[in-house]
Amino acid sequence: MSRMVRGGLIQASLNTSVDEPNEVIKRNMTDKHLKMIDEAAEKGAQVVCLQELFYGPYFCAEQNIRWYDLTEKIPDGETTVLMQEVAKKHGIVLVIPIYEEDITGVYYNTASVIDADGTYLGKYRKTHIPHTHPGFWEKFYFRPGNLGYPVFDTAVGKVGVYICYDRHFPEGARALGLNGAEIVFNPSATVAGLSQYLWEIEQPAHAVANQYFVGAINRVGHEQPWDIGKWYGSSYFCNPRGEMIAQAGEDNDEIVIADMDMDQIEEVRQVWQFYRDRRPDAYGALAQDLP
Q1: pLDDT of res. 196
Q2: Prior bond of 187 cis (ω within 30°)
Q3: Catalytic residue chosen out of the listed positions 126, 158, 182, 254
Q4: Helix axes of 78-90 and 22-42: crossing angle, nearest 10 degrees
Q5: In this structure, which CATH number among 3.80.30.30, 3.90.79.10, 3.60.110.10, 1.10.357.10 belongs to the domain 4-279?
Q6: Of the listed 32, 49, 52, 138, which one is catalytic?
Q7: Confidence (pLDDT) at 132
Q8: Cα–Cα distances in Å, from 209 out to 55, 94, 205?
Q9: pLDDT tens readout for residues 78-88
C-alpha cells in the first residue's frame, strides 16, 4: 500500500492596514490564518505550511525599525506556543514562518516545525538574504541563517524548509535532499515582474534534481502604502518528477491541497540515479569563494 500524505499550503492577503499598531496587524493576520488552518484540517491535510512572514505585511518593502517589534523568541514565543496547541488539536504537522529574535538586535527569518502531537521539532533560518531590488531590503531585518539545512522527522515523513530567496540557490536544495528530505516547503513573498517567470521553473527543477516533493507558497494582493508589485500567489505542490499536482490562482486567498505518494520518491530514484552518480570529489570548487 502506498504511503500517502495530504499536504496543505495557505496563501493569503494582508487583511489590516499597516497604519494600525503592530499588535493589531499581528492579531488579525494570525486569526485569519488560524481559520484557514482549521479549513485545511477539515479537508484532511496532514501537514500545512504558511507563507513567509505570515502574521504581518512584507515589511521589507521599507527600512523601518518599527517592524523589529514583530520579533519573537523560538520556541517560547507566543506564535510557536499557539501553533503547538493548534497542531495537537488537529493532529497535523505545521511549518510556521516567524520573525525570530535570537538576542536583542539579532533577528532571523525563521520557520518553526511542529509535529502532529504538538511537539516543537526545531527551526530553519533563512540562509540567503536579498538586498538587491527596491523594496526587498532584507539585510536591514535579518541576519543570514546559521543552522545549516536541517530535516525534521515528522509524523508525515522527513520535512525540510527553504525560505523564499533561498530557492534561487541549488546548493541548499541539494543539501536538504542529501539530509533525507521527502517534502521541502518554500514559504515565500515574491512579486510579479521580478521573479514570476522563475516561479514554475526553479522549484520543480529542485524537485527533479533531488527527487522529492516541493510545496511552494506565495502571498497574494497589493500591500499599501509600498505597493512594490502584485503578490501573485500561484502556490503549488510538485512531485519528484517536477510535475505540478495542485496549484492555486494568482489573486485570491486559497488553500492548496494535494495528495503525495511518498513511494514515488523511491520509484523515481530507481530510474534516475542522480545520488548514485554524483561526483562530490569533483565539486570542491563549488564551496570556494570567488577569486
Answers
A1: 94
A2: no
A3: 126
A4: 20
A5: 3.60.110.10
A6: 52
A7: 82
A8: 33, 25, 6
A9: 999 999 999 99
Residue 32 annotated among the catalytic residues of the structure: no
43 is annotated as an active-site residue:
no
Pairing of strands 120-125, 151-154: unpaired
Q: Are strands 231-232 and 4-11 parallel, antiparallel or unpaired?
A: unpaired
pLDDT at 290: 84
Catalytic-labelled residue, pool 26, 164, 182, 238: 164
Residue with cell 541539494: 174
In total, the chain counts a number of residues equal to 291
User: Which pLDDT score, from 0 to 100, does residue 291 have?
Assistant: 82
Low-confidence ranges of the chain (pLDDT < 70): 1
Task: List the one residue out of 136, 130, 134, 140 whose CA is nearest residue 65.
Answer: 140
Based on the residue annotation, tell me whether 164 is a catalytic residue of this protein: yes
DSSP E strands: which ranges in the chain?
4-11, 47-49, 93-103, 106-114, 120-125, 151-154, 157-161, 183-187, 213-217, 220-221, 231-232, 236-238, 244-247, 254-261
The pLDDT of residue 133 = 77
Q: Assign 131 to helix, strand or coil.
A: coil
C-alpha separations of 228 from 134, 135, 202 in Å? 8, 6, 22
